[in-house]
Amino acid sequence: MANINELRLAQKSLYNGARQIGDAGMRLNGTKYEADYRKAWTAIEKLNNRLIADIRKEGK
Which pTM does this prediction carry? Predict the structure, then answer.
Protein backbone atom coordinates (compact mmCIF):
# COMPACT_ATOMS: atom_id res chain seq x y z
CA MET A 1 0.00 0.00 0.00
CA ALA A 2 1.15 3.54 -0.69
CA ASN A 3 2.61 5.66 2.03
CA ILE A 4 -0.17 7.35 4.06
CA ASN A 5 1.38 10.76 3.38
CA GLU A 6 1.22 10.10 -0.36
CA LEU A 7 -2.45 9.14 -0.03
CA ARG A 8 -3.13 12.38 1.87
CA LEU A 9 -1.37 14.43 -0.79
CA ALA A 10 -3.28 12.66 -3.57
CA GLN A 11 -6.60 13.27 -1.82
CA LYS A 12 -5.69 16.91 -1.25
CA SER A 13 -4.87 17.29 -4.96
CA LEU A 14 -8.23 15.81 -5.93
CA TYR A 15 -9.99 18.14 -3.50
CA ASN A 16 -8.11 21.19 -4.79
CA GLY A 17 -8.82 20.29 -8.39
CA ALA A 18 -12.55 19.87 -7.79
CA ARG A 19 -13.27 23.55 -8.44
CA GLN A 20 -11.77 23.47 -11.93
CA ILE A 21 -13.34 20.11 -12.71
CA GLY A 22 -16.72 21.37 -11.52
CA ASP A 23 -16.30 24.47 -13.67
CA ALA A 24 -15.68 22.28 -16.69
CA GLY A 25 -18.83 20.32 -15.83
CA MET A 26 -20.96 23.44 -15.77
CA ARG A 27 -19.61 24.43 -19.18
CA LEU A 28 -20.30 20.98 -20.59
CA ASN A 29 -23.85 20.86 -19.23
CA GLY A 30 -26.24 20.21 -22.10
CA THR A 31 -23.52 19.27 -24.59
CA LYS A 32 -22.73 15.95 -26.17
CA TYR A 33 -19.82 15.68 -23.70
CA GLU A 34 -21.92 15.90 -20.54
CA ALA A 35 -22.32 12.13 -20.13
CA ASP A 36 -18.55 11.61 -20.41
CA TYR A 37 -17.95 14.38 -17.90
CA ARG A 38 -20.40 12.81 -15.44
CA LYS A 39 -18.64 9.44 -15.74
CA ALA A 40 -15.30 11.10 -15.01
CA TRP A 41 -16.75 13.07 -12.08
CA THR A 42 -18.30 9.92 -10.59
CA ALA A 43 -14.98 8.05 -10.92
CA ILE A 44 -13.11 10.92 -9.24
CA GLU A 45 -15.71 11.05 -6.46
CA LYS A 46 -15.39 7.29 -5.84
CA LEU A 47 -11.59 7.55 -5.79
CA ASN A 48 -11.74 10.46 -3.35
CA ASN A 49 -14.09 8.55 -1.05
CA ARG A 50 -11.85 5.48 -1.11
CA LEU A 51 -8.79 7.58 -0.34
CA ILE A 52 -10.55 9.23 2.60
CA ALA A 53 -11.66 5.86 3.94
CA ASP A 54 -8.15 4.44 3.73
CA ILE A 55 -6.59 7.55 5.25
CA ARG A 56 -9.01 7.34 8.18
CA LYS A 57 -8.35 3.62 8.57
CA GLU A 58 -4.57 4.13 8.59
CA GLY A 59 -4.88 7.07 10.98
CA LYS A 60 -6.34 4.90 13.74
Answer: 0.85
